Amino acid sequence: MTKKILFQDTSFRDGFQSIFGARAFTKDFIPAVEAAVAAGITHFEAGGGARFQAPFLYCGESAFDMMDAFRKAVGPDVRLQTLARGINVVALEQQPADMIDLHAKMFKKHGMTRIRNFDALNDVNNLIYSGQCIVDAGLEHEVVVTMMELPRGCSGAHDAEFYANTLRQILDAGVPFSSVCFKDASGTSNPRKVHETFKAARKLLGDKVELRIHSHETCGTGISQYLAAIEAGCDGVCVGRAPLSGGTAQPDLFSLWHALKGTDYDLDIDVDKVMEANNVAKECLKDYEFPPEALAIDTNVIFSPMPGGALTANTLMMRESKTFHRFPEVITAMAECVARGGFATSVTPVSQFYFQQAYANVMLGPWKKMTDGYGNMVLGYYGKTPVAPDPEIVKIALEQMKKPVFTGDPIAVLEPGIPKATKLLEENNLPVTDENIFIIGAFATKGGNKGLDFLKGNIKISVPKKDPNQPAAAPAAAAPTPVDPQKAKKYRVSASGKTMELLVESV
User: Fold this and answer.
1) Mean pLDDT, the chain, as a whole number?
2) Secondary structure (DSSP) of 342-361
3) How much is the pTM?
């Protein structure tokens, strides 16, 4: 008997994130969503990850409005899923408990069905409260174990035994969930390891729990991973569709359909109708610039696991700051950052920590500047890394950051976010709504608040269209202002205002 493999269309979240740095106007792609529904697709990734930040910061539009438009386009019965980063939810920094709870309520309010929830460190403690909030809000919780391949010469985590143990911890902790996903943001996991992992997971979960895989085609092994997972008991996969598939994005739906020919598995799709939907998407996005690195397979990523969703956001930043010629050096330097940082999975926000530190090491000299994210990670402020970070790196972080090693619960030391956000809205004579409170909380930094900038209309539109002077969703938006090479250093400043931190968005 043929088994039907479930699939989620990730084109309009991870596809956008992996190719355009998540910068796409809602009005430009909604017709493609409608065409996909007409083709029989019933499960979409509709937001979360950098597709929460990018609409506000680069498109000049609300991610909540985008989710509302998505739900209207698909109707009431289609499953819409978003991506959350554990206690970071859809922010790059940890969020206090009240904001984590508000995140789930807001995404339920704006039409979402399921939230896929991961922690980049695979610290199960970071999934307990965030998962409970998702369930309490009336949403399906898909709990995640994150995967990648380690740089050469590294061991101690990120093998099948490590992933099975992480899943066992999730079960022992009583984290509520409706499904389980193994997520490889860099697409680097060896297919044999994937097979062994899913065999172990199926044994732990039994036959009734929905088991899924999410990966990328970045280094060319995405389809092989999916076949390995399916043969080991996987129920569902994440796929993209042309022109938002392959390369740094998800494996293509048709590629997997073709690979499953002659097997006991089938996707049950109407090929002709999906082709028509793909053509609509191509027409909708014909004015967007597709960076060449987003369309290519890069085997160097195997040795320095760089997620597709972070790669193009960072290359976009480096092009704008006139430093793109140093990109190969940065990717090489990233391997050392992974090897010495405790093996947290290269997925947002940790992928940014790795990249930012590698960038600083290349531009300023090795370990001359400990970046905030990486430094806080090795000191324990994001939770427990899979293995202990290199003691020398910890020492450098202690000396430069002037703060101790932290071993407590990251949430427990954070002040409530709603009162602070409410006060800031009131001080600026802005409406105090749940949406605005969350926007303020999600974009709060030491150096200012980008959410406040958005609400006051102070966001500069930056979308990679061939004709940026005519953005479909923002008639008043101007083309991005070119970066002055003499001032490019500003682009390497974090939102907290510290030198060498990068404001870049990504999974």
Assistant:
1) 90
2) T---SSTTHHHHHHHHHHHH
3) 0.89
